[in-house]
Specification:
With 124 residues, this protein is mostly helical. It has one domain (3-103): Up-down Bundle (Methane Monooxygenase Hydroxylase, Chain G, domain 1). Helix content is 89%, strand content 0%. α2 (31-61) runs antiparallel to α3 (64-104). It is elongated. It starts with a helix and ends with a helix. Residues 34-61 form a coiled coil. It is found in: Endomembrane system.
Length: 124
Protein backbone atom coordinates (compact mmCIF):
# COMPACT_ATOMS: atom_id res chain seq x y z
CA UNK A 1 0.00 0.00 0.00
CA UNK A 2 2.71 2.50 0.92
CA UNK A 3 4.45 1.64 -2.37
CA UNK A 4 1.37 3.01 -4.21
CA UNK A 5 1.55 6.12 -2.07
CA UNK A 6 5.25 6.52 -2.79
CA UNK A 7 4.59 6.14 -6.51
CA UNK A 8 1.97 8.88 -6.29
CA UNK A 9 4.47 11.00 -4.35
CA UNK A 10 7.03 10.66 -7.13
CA UNK A 11 4.44 11.55 -9.76
CA UNK A 12 3.32 14.53 -7.68
CA UNK A 13 6.93 15.75 -7.27
CA UNK A 14 7.59 15.56 -11.02
CA UNK A 15 4.28 17.23 -11.86
CA UNK A 16 4.69 20.07 -9.36
CA UNK A 17 8.23 20.73 -10.60
CA UNK A 18 6.89 21.03 -14.16
CA UNK A 19 4.07 23.31 -13.00
CA UNK A 20 6.48 25.55 -11.08
CA UNK A 21 8.72 25.84 -14.13
CA UNK A 22 5.80 26.71 -16.41
CA UNK A 23 4.31 29.24 -13.99
CA UNK A 24 7.65 31.07 -13.92
CA UNK A 25 7.75 31.15 -17.73
CA UNK A 26 4.19 32.48 -18.29
CA UNK A 27 4.96 36.23 -17.92
CA UNK A 28 7.87 36.06 -20.39
CA UNK A 29 6.10 34.28 -23.24
CA UNK A 30 4.56 35.89 -26.34
CA UNK A 31 0.75 36.26 -26.01
CA UNK A 32 -0.21 33.27 -28.17
CA UNK A 33 2.15 30.97 -26.29
CA UNK A 34 0.95 32.36 -22.95
CA UNK A 35 -2.63 31.29 -23.64
CA UNK A 36 -1.45 27.79 -24.46
CA UNK A 37 0.82 27.65 -21.40
CA UNK A 38 -1.97 28.88 -19.10
CA UNK A 39 -4.28 26.15 -20.42
CA UNK A 40 -1.52 23.57 -19.97
CA UNK A 41 -0.84 24.65 -16.38
CA UNK A 42 -4.56 24.53 -15.58
CA UNK A 43 -4.68 20.95 -16.85
CA UNK A 44 -1.60 19.97 -14.85
CA UNK A 45 -3.00 21.57 -11.69
CA UNK A 46 -6.10 19.39 -12.12
CA UNK A 47 -3.88 16.33 -12.54
CA UNK A 48 -2.01 17.26 -9.35
CA UNK A 49 -5.30 17.60 -7.47
CA UNK A 50 -6.33 14.16 -8.69
CA UNK A 51 -3.01 12.72 -7.50
CA UNK A 52 -3.60 14.31 -4.08
CA UNK A 53 -7.03 12.68 -3.96
CA UNK A 54 -5.51 9.29 -4.79
CA UNK A 55 -2.83 9.79 -2.15
CA UNK A 56 -5.48 10.77 0.38
CA UNK A 57 -7.39 7.58 -0.36
CA UNK A 58 -4.21 5.56 0.10
CA UNK A 59 -3.56 7.21 3.48
CA UNK A 60 -7.04 6.26 4.65
CA UNK A 61 -6.25 2.61 3.90
CA UNK A 62 -3.02 2.63 5.94
CA UNK A 63 -3.26 1.14 9.45
CA UNK A 64 -3.78 3.83 12.13
CA UNK A 65 -0.40 3.25 13.78
CA UNK A 66 1.40 4.19 10.52
CA UNK A 67 -1.05 6.80 9.27
CA UNK A 68 0.38 9.80 11.16
CA UNK A 69 3.56 10.05 9.09
CA UNK A 70 1.59 9.88 5.84
CA UNK A 71 -0.97 12.38 7.09
CA UNK A 72 1.81 14.87 7.81
CA UNK A 73 3.20 14.39 4.33
CA UNK A 74 -0.27 14.92 2.87
CA UNK A 75 -0.63 18.21 4.75
CA UNK A 76 2.68 19.31 3.29
CA UNK A 77 1.61 18.35 -0.25
CA UNK A 78 -1.70 20.17 0.14
CA UNK A 79 0.16 23.29 1.28
CA UNK A 80 2.43 22.99 -1.73
CA UNK A 81 -0.63 22.67 -3.97
CA UNK A 82 -2.13 25.81 -2.43
CA UNK A 83 1.11 27.70 -3.04
CA UNK A 84 1.18 26.57 -6.67
CA UNK A 85 -2.39 27.74 -7.17
CA UNK A 86 -1.58 31.12 -5.60
CA UNK A 87 1.55 31.50 -7.74
CA UNK A 88 -0.45 30.59 -10.83
CA UNK A 89 -3.11 33.18 -10.02
CA UNK A 90 -0.41 35.83 -9.60
CA UNK A 91 1.16 34.78 -12.86
CA UNK A 92 -2.21 35.03 -14.62
CA UNK A 93 -2.86 38.46 -13.09
CA UNK A 94 0.52 39.68 -14.33
CA UNK A 95 -0.34 38.20 -17.72
CA UNK A 96 -3.77 39.89 -17.73
CA UNK A 97 -2.27 43.25 -16.75
CA UNK A 98 0.28 42.92 -19.53
CA UNK A 99 -2.42 42.13 -22.11
CA UNK A 100 -4.52 45.05 -20.88
CA UNK A 101 -1.55 47.39 -21.15
CA UNK A 102 -0.81 46.18 -24.68
CA UNK A 103 -4.40 46.69 -25.75
CA UNK A 104 -4.61 50.16 -24.22
CA UNK A 105 -1.14 51.17 -25.33
CA UNK A 106 -0.29 51.78 -21.67
CA UNK A 107 3.34 51.30 -20.72
CA UNK A 108 2.45 51.16 -17.04
CA UNK A 109 3.82 54.62 -16.29
CA UNK A 110 0.96 56.84 -17.44
CA UNK A 111 -1.02 56.70 -14.20
CA UNK A 112 2.17 57.23 -12.28
CA UNK A 113 2.94 60.30 -14.38
CA UNK A 114 -0.60 61.58 -13.99
CA UNK A 115 -0.38 61.24 -10.24
CA UNK A 116 2.89 63.14 -10.23
CA UNK A 117 1.58 65.96 -12.39
CA UNK A 118 -1.57 66.26 -10.29
CA UNK A 119 0.44 66.63 -7.13
CA UNK A 120 2.58 69.33 -8.74
CA UNK A 121 -0.54 71.16 -9.94
CA UNK A 122 -2.01 70.96 -6.47
CA UNK A 123 1.15 72.40 -4.95
CA UNK A 124 1.21 75.49 -7.20
Amino acid sequence: MSSDFEGYEQDFAVLTAEITNKIARVPRLPPDEKKQMVANVEKQLEEAKELLEQMDLEVREIPPQSRGMYSNRMRSYKQEMGKLETDFKRSRIAYSDEVRNELLGDDGNSSENQGTSVSYCGAS
